[in-house]
Predict the 3D structure of the following.
Amino acid sequence: MLIGYIFGVVVALVGLFIQVRPRLSNRYFGIDTWRHLTVADYIRQNKKYPKLMPEHYLIDKPSDYPPLFRFLLALFPKKLLEKYQWIASPIFDFIHNLFIFSVVYYFTNNFFISILAQVTYMLSPIVIMENSNLTTRSFASLLFSGCFFSLICYSVFGNIFCLIASIIFLTILLLSHRMSIQAIVFTLVFFSIIELDFTYIAVLLGSVILAILFSKGFYLKVLKGHLAMIRFWFIHIDNRYAHQIRGVSKKEKNPDAVFRIYQLVQNIPFIAVCAANPFMVFVFAYVYLDLFKSYNINTMGIPEAMFSKFVVWSILLFVIGVIVRQVKKLGCIGEGERYLEYSAFPVAIIVAVFLTNGLISGQHNVFLVFYLIIAIFGALLPTLFIQQQVIVKDSKRSVNKEIKEIFKYIDILEGKVNIMTMPLYLADAATYFTSARLLTTDNSIAHVVDYSDFWPVLKVPLTVIFKRYDINYLLINTQYVQISELNLPNNQIVKESGFYCLIKVDLI
């Protein structure tokens, strides 16, 4: 028995290695990373969540991001957290992987099925890529699985402790992440309707009340900010992947690998969602055989009612993902393929059980070969390729030695240093690594009120933005935009390093 658990840990460690492998050569990749670390540093120093951060933000309005994950980060020393931020998200996913192993083994008492579920989960492309940098997503995915699995256990077994666990998981989730809340709301409402059971909605309402009480009302600001961000992208969805200066150009090839992938996804939304977790093909195969061929699958000890809910859970989020990707305006609630991250848990279990049935049948070779084709050529190899292109070779979303030279120069400048960056996401790293004030914010409502003139597409002359926010420096990546495109009346290049250029703005 011990050897089985050891294998489970080893498989989870292999999954962790797949995720951290590209970060071994690019330790400082990421965007949200630096915003989270900036706020965590404030919490560490002031023992409270920031209301205003005038020392960092030129658009200084109260932070309305879910706070719990940042409080968790603040428990670790700044230097330690900065040095090892690249492994934080994979560690949460490591726990998630072991959670899957434990659940499957508890019901099946079979190490092979348990490990097969782990392997399926860890090879899912959306799982690997979502843990490529420090974000709240892996933490949220773990909480999502804990919440809905506990609720399923309550509906099947009637154990009140499972209901309590579900409410606790969801309360923590509400205070930790945003997009996952959209996924859990869709899921709870749908299950409530098809099962005519108000329990699902009651768990949601109870968790919201607890989140409000536990946060002393702060969750209401989080919710208001969440809705504001949805509104912002509903208004600007046509420019979701636009260039800040050039706008949307169908003829020009975007030099940014990430944006090229996004634009490709827009053209083939259904395929993009399928590619996020190609193991969904086994879920649909099971449904087809069950409905049209009367194929009686052995659920290997997992209660049939629970297994059926896993199937509905998986297909529901897949369908939502396709709809969100297909209907452009729905892009305001996130990229469709990201919804599949929150169904990777049940998909892995379904695939493990379904494949095991195939292996013990007379067609074991067909099942095994098909699984290996999907796992290797549909999941692992494409993901490794994307990791190489997006992370290892990245020069735009990483804090490399060239931009560090710029940051060092900024910190020796005298007087006020108010900076605008192009692209905008450079501001997060500059906020963390320098003492300058940046044209950015940690407030969602400010996106609607303040950002619309200059992001995602610049709509007014830069001089207007400079005067409005008293900006005296502009930091650009010349791979993204050339100085000649900016129409600056007066400018002086004060520091260049690689593709980065710091410009002194003179409006006189």
